[in-house]
Known about the structure:
Structural class: alpha+beta
Shape: globular
CATH superfamily of the largest domain: Alpha-1-antitrypsin, domain 1
Largest sheet: 6 strands, antiparallel
Number of helices: 9
Number of domains: 2
Order of helices and strands: EEHEHHHEHEHEEEEEHHEH
Number of strands: 11
Helix content: 25-40%
Amino acid sequence: MLSRLAFGLLLSLHVLLVLSSTTNSSKSPFPPASPSLPSLLNDPSWALGVRLYKALRSDSSSVNTLFSPLLLASSLGALAESSVGKTADQIQDLLKTPSKAKRKVGDVLSVALKSFVEANGTSFQMHTSSSVFTKQAPALSHSFTKQSQSRFRLQHQTLGKGDFKADLKQLHDWAKAVLSEKKGAPLEAEIKAKAGAMILANALHFKGLWERKLSEESTDHRTFLGKKYTKVIMMHRAGLYHFHEDIDNMVQVLEAPLWGGKASLILLMPFHVENLARLDNLLTLELLSKWLESTVVTSVAVSLPKANITSTLSLQVGAVLLAV
Length: 324
């Protein structure tokens, strides 16, 4: 069985990370065969990721933002299993998928998260953690903390009785420790947690390792369209990749493998230079699934911007997603 896990990245081209449970010999000159995989329509992390991406993009002031639908969905899944009544219904609604999956959402997310963690050090290097912070709230049950840690790697932290600045510092210190002193983007939004508040936090440092490196020697500066045209360092490579062209929608889909075949990078690109508004409107989980299943091995010349991206995202997930 092969699973695909998503990352979302808001740039001038759509970027997704795909994680596979199969391996590919680095000796093979060809990318692994396009997988016959369980439909993305059954995966709550992909469903949540696309919905959250589209919600964020509906804000015209949105900037480059990196987020992990799997970490977020897993944290919500842990809360869902211990919630009742209206709260449980709201969380389950956030994790709903277009299809009626036979497996429980919590089981799907727990297995996917385990695969992701076990792949660390193969196709990518990462530091990650998830935690639920509570402030002057009733003690969480032992069964919840034990199960959320074992199934979803969700830890529990208690915020002190200080003001929002003290809370923000505690969150920063936690993230800094998780990321092993890796430099991260500061939290710009104020977090004003009242007594009884609960905050879900995910921290991630991710570095993909190319299966076939893009040439560092042949880099050059080229014009790239973000919010505006700017000069960026571009890396280049020609080779065999899984590739698909959707002629009707004028979209190119490219899958670039990472080292060892445990993961790959998916790029969604318009045919012509344009902003992402049209592609944003097109994007659905159903269409994304169709694109990925339609890729075939093709000789392609690839040029990608060289970038190191840090970002933070602070939001009320339910309010954002339920508004779209």
